[in-house]
Amino acid sequence: MSDTSHFARFLRFAAVGAVGTVAHYALLLALVEGAHVDPIAGSVAGFLLGALVNYTLNRTLVFRSDRAHVEALPRFLAVAGMGLCWNALLMYLLVDWIGLYYFLAQMLTTAILLCWHYVGNALWTFRKRIAHE
To answer: What is this structure's pTM?
Structure first.
């Protein structure tokens, strides 16, 4: 794959991620502002919703994966699970330790995790199968 193709795929990944992020943030805001849930719990719930949106769109639109769901979904969930741990840790550090406003902290956390998710999914979850797999 050429550098241009990698960049185009990353841009598609980021666009799909934006859709998942809208779902994440919408649930986060609804839970924190509407239901008065703790921001960290709201962030985790939003993250899970965004992950479901992202799996579906990344599998079909970004990576055009031929891996069966039974193989790809557990891999995706492993990458997302690690991302969820990073999300919770970063939110805790930024909100509770540093005192950053929760929504600004979530935006910063999302930007950091964009790279984690792209690399994990490109190299493992949706990577094209090779002969010995």
So the answer is: 0.73
